[in-house]
Predict the 3D structure of the following.
Amino acid sequence: MKKYNSIRIFKNPFLESLTHVHPIVPLLLWVPVIIYWLYKSYVDYGLTMAEYGAFFLIGIIVWTFTEYILHRYVFHMPTIGPLTERFVFLFHGLHHDDPNDPTRLVMPPAPAIIIVALLYGLFSLVVPERYIQAFMAFFIVGYLCYDYIHYATHHFKMTSKVGRYLKKWHLQHHFRHEKSKYGVSSPLWDYIFRTVTGPKEN
């Protein structure tokens, strides 16, 4: 990867190194997990193609909703002190300060694994045991789509009609009004929750 003059956020060189991630890392980390979960769901429960198809759609839709909620309410949450300011900066404010840093556009493995483990436990409360592995596999497929759409909007010339639309949509969030257009992989929930445009400013 070409050397980029990144904003330094940790004095400790080891901690700092953990904040820089090559874009291939999410694929290397999560594709084996996806394959394992899909395999286990077939071996343990004999899921049918119809069931896989249904949970593909469910997993992708739930991901887009999760992406929207995290982006709107966690990554852009109001700060009430130095701890919340630091949290928001580390998770997302840094990206708004330097949106084109190619080493900080995908989630580092350590927090990604923790977040997925927490979500697995949370979703297990509502998704039947028979389907949880297939659901999580397709949920992570949605996450990977988001990661690479996000990377592409900042670093590639999108040539397709959909690609150009998503690139314009996300860059408007960055450079026109950050309190709108929270969806990256899909604008669906922005339309549902009426955040296509931001609040009027005085």
Observations:
- DSSP finds eight helices and no strands in the chain.
